[in-house]
Design brief:
The protein is built from eight helices and eight strands; from the N terminus they run ααααααααββββββββ. It has 249 residues and is α+β, with helices and mostly antiparallel strands. It has two domains: 107 residues, no CATH class; 96 residues, Immunoglobulin-like (Sandwich). The longest helix is centred in the middle third of the chain and has 22 residues.
Amino acid sequence: MKHHATDAHTLAAAYTLGALDDGEREAFDAHLRACEACGQEAAEFEATAARLASAVSQPPPASAKAQVMAAIDGVRQLPPHIPAPVAAPALRGIVRRRALPLALAAGVTAAVLGGVAVWQAQHGQDLRQQARQAQQQLDAVSAVLTAPDARTVHGKAANGALTTVVASDRQNKAVFTAANLPAPGAGKTYQLWLDHDGTMRPAGLIDHDGTVVLTGNPADAGAVGLTLEPAGGSPQPTTDPLLLMTLPA
């Protein structure tokens, strides 16, 4: 089947998240050698996916390794599972059938469940609630990231935090991700803002590395701001912005 040239441009996210078969990856590798724009987009998706996964992951308890090593001798190894061969579909089929939410769910949910499994016996009820909240967050984030008009911009705050904003006019939502965000300190929190023609409107709180969907209406906002505020947030910024990043056009 002959493919339109524009089809390949939509596969950058699935490519960076390992959602393509061998044949599809080879075809996209060839496309990347001739398309600088897709190379840049693939690099941005890779950085964003890594930040999302690290934002929701949970470290295992210190006792986990000792427990695993003590029990490993009694675990019988299973024979390898060999899946039936499946013919690689055409690129156009991949665009229609294989949406980015599946790849994001595989990467981000794996990070969530890796920590959940370790603690489940002791904190079952709390973990189920956390899992539901994590799934709701994942659904909201995925809706923005997979929107056909999703646009991405990266920045760096004055305190060294690495930031990413993905915005979608169709969803009328924007997602903010922070990495290497220093602890805000006792009685403090980081607050996000949407800049509407010089008027800063509250857009949510974030106090550690992670990903949040901005509250408010980003459609007519020009930038996203980040300030350090008293715990609970403020109606207006009380400190100079650590970041004022123009929303992607």
